[in-house]
Design brief:
The chain has five helices and ten strands, in the order ααααβαβββββββββ. The chain is an alpha+beta fold and 240 residues long. The chain folds into two domains: 2-84, no CATH class; 95-210, no CATH class. Strands 1, 4, 5, 6, 7 and 8 form a six-stranded antiparallel sheet that branches. It has a two-stranded parallel ribbon with strand order 2-3.
């Protein structure tokens, strides 16, 4: 019981729960994620994520069951092996946006520029521009409004952002990017907010689930060292 209570104190209160049997509910979610990770990292070809969901959950535990095993597996594979990721243009989003929510936010001119740049990179065969902006006459004009969200959930894992002040500690991320040479670089950043934005693609309004992130800049020198004192008799070194 003391172990469960300790886990709860380490910021696990954001997990959905019935507020009646929170300890076993949280432990089940952790075990579920661990099962998925073990199957994917085993290197064995398996149909087996379906085995995890052979018994339907009830009550608050059923919230994670709306995401299929295939969707959760694809999410894990994308995060584990970016070289084999098949993410292009618009992919199905195996999750949902969570409160706090702010609807119909008008984007700034700078944000519209970023949105246009994103769509141009994602849909290489199409042209986009912001309202009254420069571009070809047949360019797709992006909408100026978006809906902001403080958190999002994929499976049983919840990601937070800066605008969700109660959960800001879980807004920091480490993202992988593949360079043109095939190398993998990791970049730390902080999610400012999640948002949905719709754009008209081939006469059909298509909604995208996105995140606005501030990235940390690299240190000017890779050999910078700092030290600080934790206790009177202990000094720790930090290298950037």
């Amino acid at each position: 019981m003391h172990f469960y209570q300790l886990l709860f104190k380490i910021n696990l209160g954001s997990f959905p729960n019935s507020r009646r049997k929170i300890e076993p509910e949280i432990m089940r979610r952790l075990m579920f994620d661990n099962q998925i990770s073990n199957i994917i990292n085993s290197g064995v070809e398996s149909k087996g994520l379906d085995l995890i969901s052979n018994k339907p959950s009830v009550g608050s535990l059923s919230e994670a069951d709306q995401f299929s095993a295939d969707e959760i597996k694809q999410f894990w594979l994308t995060s584990r092996n970016i070289h084999e990721s098949t993410t292009t243009e618009k992919e199905a989003f195996p999750g949902e946006m969570l409160r706090p929510v702010f609807n119909d936010i008008v984007m700034s001119s700078d944000m519209l520029d970023l949105i246009v740049e994103y769509y141009m990179a994602s849909y290489e065969m199409m042209e986009f521009r912001k309202p009254f902006g420069e571009g070809a006459e047949d360019s797709i004009i992006v909408q100026v409004k978006m809906n902001q969200f403080g958190r999002c959930r994929i499976g049983s894992e919840i990601f937070s952002s800066l605008i969700s002040s109660r959960h800001v500690k879980s807004s920091f991320i480490l993202a992988k990017f593949m360079t043109e040479s095939g190398d993998i670089d990791c970049y730390p950043g902080q999610v400012q907010y999640f948002f949905t934005h719709a754009v008209n693609l081939s006469d059909e309004l298509s909604e995208h689930n996105l995140a606005f992130i501030h990235w940390y800049k690299p240190a000017e020198s890779s050999n910078i060292r700092y030290h600080f004192r934790v206790r009177d008799d202990e000094i720790c070194n930090v290298e950037l």
